[in-house]
Design brief:
- By secondary structure, the protein is mainly beta.
- The protein contains one helix and 32 strands.
- A four-stranded antiparallel sheet has the order 1-32-31-30, with no helix packed on it. A four-stranded antiparallel sheet has the order 2-3-4-5, with no helix packed on it. Strands 6-7-8-9 form a four-stranded antiparallel sheet, with no helix packed on it.
- A hairpin with a 3-residue loop joins strand 3 (84-88) and strand 4.
- The radius of gyration is 30 Å and the shape is globular.
- It starts with 18 loop residues before the first helix and ends with a strand.
- The model has no long low-confidence stretch (mean pLDDT 89).
Length: 398
């Protein structure tokens, strides 16, 4: 008799209702996605926590990560520009990469180099001389020759330059495009208007703000005037779109920030204006301490104040709305201070102090080299330090 074989395969008939099976499949998929999301969130939290811990940590030592030497004149000065560094002296202007190698060099014959830098352009002028050279990241854009000695210059992103030309009785403010064509000329009467003490230019070059110092009897006053050379100022006398007087103070600095804001800084106060076509005062901040120095970015206004009630100095930081962000004592006075991202970098000789915008003194120490310029480098707690003969990359450690 033959044996009857049993088949190993069974034919399953699908149930009439597939909804239960689909629900189970969806639950399985959702559970898998949730597990992946939980893992990703934990990884992100761990990375962010580590970053914040390192970012807000207090460090006491600066170690060298890399050194790039060069045959450099000991009379050179430096300025941060775009993604590189500008080196300038009497003999030339060079644009360097972050390994201290020249991208381009422009020979010059300038006795007293004076530099002004914006995001997309910079200019080097002969302070007391007659020459101005306008540059972009690609190199020389144009040259300007003036008829009177240069005292102050400002520049826009496009390379438009306004220059105060020195003349004891009748100083002149000239505005040029990058190639040297005259765009505007203003003859200043010191007897009626006052003597220009500070200038600032908007990003697009259409608005020029000037602070004038004058005497009303025996009282010292400042007058801040905004000139608009676009359509907004064409119908106004002398292109003036705003003017404000300030008693018993010298408005010694004016600059433009992001968001169409501009700031005029006096002895113990500063005023924020909004707009360029028709500027209006949005806030005046009066301080009970003397302002020693001021620095800024598009987001923040930094002040170093002299502490009157106790020895030392105070660092204050405001946002562009004039709201105070931090106020804290610092260990000394620094000749150089800048805001780089979310950090304040101060240095003088080999001394350096780095403070975050949240008020944490991240580093206070000696860099073992006289610093000519310093800026943040790629990575956490890494910085470029330019000295007379080399570029260093340093990192902070405990």
């Amino acid at each position: 008799m033959t044996q009857k074989k049993k088949p190993y395969l069974r034919i399953l008939t699908p149930p009439d209702d597939l909804s239960e099976i689909m629900k189970k499949v969806r639950r399985f998929r959702y559970a898998k996605v949730r597990r992946i999301l939980v893992i990703l969130i934990l990884v992100i939290l761990a990375v962010c926590g580590t970053y914040l811990l390192m970012k807000n940590q207090v460090y006491g030592t600066a170690r060298i990560s890399a050194q790039y030497s060069g045959n450099i004149s000991d009379t050179s000065n430096y300025a941060q520009f775009a993604d590189g560094i500008v080196r300038y002296n009497r003999d030339g202007v060079a644009f360097l990469d972050k390994k201290n190698e020249e991208r381009w060099i422009q020979p010059t014959q300038i006795q007293n180099p004076l530099i002004v830098v914006r995001d997309e352009s910079f200019a080097v002028a002969d302070n007391g001389g007659n020459s101005i050279m306008v540059f972009s990241e690609e190199g020389l854009k144009g040259e300007i020759e003036t008829t009177l000695p240069i005292e102050k210059i400002v520049i826009s992103n496009q390379g438009i330059v306004s220059v105060l030309l020195r003349n004891e009785t009748s100083p002149t403010i000239m505005t040029y495009d990058a190639t040297g064509n005259i765009l505007a000329e203003m003859q200043i009467s010191t007897g009626t208007t006052g003597y220009p003490t500070a200038m600032g230019m908007s990003d697009d070059g259409t608005t020029l703000a000037v602070s004038y110092l004058f005497f009303d009897g025996t009282a010292i006053k400042s007058r801040v005037v905004y000139y608009n050379f676009g359509e907004a100022g064409q119908e106004n006398a002398d292109n003036i779109v705003f003017s404000e007087e300030y008693d018993n103070t010298i408005m010694g600095e004016i600059f433009f920030m992001g968001g169409g804001r501009s700031v005029a800084v006096g002895d113990n106060s500063f005023t924020i204006c909004r707009g360029t076509d028709a500027p209006e005062v949005v806030k005046t901040v009066t301080l009970d301490q003397e302002i020693q120095s001021v620095f800024h970015s598009d987001e923040y206004i930094g002040l170093i104040l002299l502490n009157r009630e106790k020895s030392g100095y105070e660092l204050r930081l405001y946002n562009r709305n004039g709201e105070q962000m931090i106020s804290r004592g610092i260990p000394g006075m620094y000749d150089n201070a800048k805001i780089d991202g979310d950090e304040i970098i101060m240095y003088d000789g080999s001394r350096c102090c780095i403070v975050t915008v949240t008020g944490i003194i991240k580093f206070d120490g000696d860099l073992d080299v006289d610093v000519l310029d310093m800026s943040r480098a790629f990575g956490i707690n890494r910085y470029y330090v330019m000295s007379v003969d080399e570029l260093r990359v340093i990192y902070l450690t405990k």
